[in-house]
Amino acid sequence: xxxxxxxDLRSLYLDFFNKKGHAVIRSASLIPxxxxxxxxxxxGMHPLTPYLLGQKHPAGNRxxxxxxxxxxxxxxxxxxxxxxxxxxxxxxxxxxxYFKKEAISWSFEFLTSEKYLNIPVDRLAVxxxxxxxxxxxxxxxxxxxxxxxxxxxxxxxxxxxxxxxGPAGITGPCGPDTEMFFDTGKPKCSAQCGPQCDCGxxxxxxNDVFMQYNKKEDGTFEPLKQKNVDTGMGLExxxxxxxxxxSVYETDLxxxxxxxxxxxxxxxxxxxxxxxKAMRIIADHVRTATFMLGDQIGVTPSNVDQGYxxxxxxxxxxxxxxxxxxxxxxxxxLAMHYVDLYQEVYTELKDNRQKIADxxxxxxxxxxxxxxxxxxxxERVIAKVQNGxxxxxxxxxxxxxxxxxxxxxVEFAKEKGLAVDEKGFREKFAEHQKKSQLGSEQRxxxxxxxxxxxxxxxxxxxxxxxxxxRKVLGNEVAQKGSNITExxxxxxxxxxxxxxxxxxxxxxxLVNEAIKRKMTVVCEEMTVEQAKAQxxxxxxxxxxxxxxxxxxxGDFSKEICGGPHASNTGDLGEFVITKEQSSSSxxxxxxxxxx
Length: 595
Known about the structure:
Blueprint: H1 6-19, E1 23-24, H2 49-52, E2 62-70, E3 86-95, H3 100-112, E4 124-129, H4 139-148, E5 155-158, H5 160-163, E6 164-165, E7 172-183, E8 202-215, E9 221-234, H6 235-242, H7 255-265, H8 273-293, H9 305-323, H10 331-342, H11 347-351, H12 353-383, E10 389-390, H13 392-402, H14 406-415, E11 419-420, H15 422-443, H16 453-473, E12 479-484, E13 489-494, H17 501-516, E14 521-527, H18 528-533, E15 547-553, E16 557-560, E17 575-584, E18 587-594
Parallel strand pairs: 1-2, 4-5, 10-11
Antiparallel strand pairs: 2-3, 3-9, 4-7, 6-7, 7-8, 8-9, 12-13, 13-18, 14-15, 15-16, 17-18
């Protein structure tokens, strides 16, 4: 089995599936387009949802890519050996084309072939769906694995919680999956030991999802008309496992950053447990912040949505940098290390290099002032302390409002001869997490990328809105995010000041005039070069010859977009802007409805 770095794994994967007839597509933005269910792209399949649901993809029905993703649900777990907030997902898709036989045989070939990962067959284990009242045992996948050369004892039948994907919401596409694991060679922890066990013998490296069912509102399952394959291989995790590392922070994706942090702090990684954890958190959070700031759409720190997550990551990294004795202003240098590391793969980082540095420096300055306020608040708190202990509620307020980690509060309290009710703090913190999780779950209530008639109309209205804004405010306007529900659209765009009342009214008027003209919405497939030549706006790929969909609405709007759209503007109804406000620095937000 050969050693492999991240660059080689990306290239090998895309090369392998390209030779199997897959079009290599560009990573989509970290900011989901018109998907109200998530703040960030959390998996390779998110940007492809319309095509998994039946729309035709301009590149065909076999696709492969490396998708940049962010997941922040486990942010407090970052610092251990495996959790990351940003990661890259290698994936290949069949949109109603091949199914289990090809997917499994190709997965096996990539994993075991000398030309690719060269993993010995006896070091692999796989799991398949065990079956239940909703769907049968997946004997087909098990037999296909055996045909590849795996023995029966290498195949594990596991329940839905282990080997079933979806639906993302209450209803929709779903199906069994088969997961692939690397057997580390450790002895089994018990007779029941298998891939479902956390003992460390089996490490997951790949997952093939077979979308073959549709879950209906009554809870029953029916076969899908278009069966899809959706696979996912985490880049960081796979490089870690294949090389026999104990942590993703040993891979080439993090080793350079860790070295930078050692030089900045004068401390060594791996010597002290707390210092090592701090270095991992800094390395992870600064990488994620770099990608958020440098994204095609881009995010800047704010108090809402994606901007709030970005602010939290930057400030959390700053706290741990201070804990290691790293001086103010060093974070942007670490961000530049990541730009240099990734800019060949993600050219948007190079394009936004200065913006990344400037925004990190600005946020660091703001946080320094917040900490100063926090210290003043701490002084007020200790003046009122009774029984020599700062209560849990107060400790949590210092954390939630001023960014004081509990360790900082304990340290400051100790200097004053006081204790902190850490148990009470943890209870308040757990309560806060529960509320956050409930809020996150509420986002998924409607399912992934709702494509109802109303949301389709609202999506079409965003095209008219952007065109109108560019006519009223000028061509500096560019989309910075879009979020659509059944009730309203929310559109973020680049603009440096609040709109005047007259500008808002003029924008609304232009959209309604376009609706009254009852213009046909025309979709054409063309290369990026052709789209540019025709004056289309949107996020252009950087791959020569890439085919995209361009939606033209009369002489009013021409945009690159993935859909879905109404067929005629006359179907939309009356467009009403309900609010215009700031979203983040240099970005405005409009909320609007169709009545």
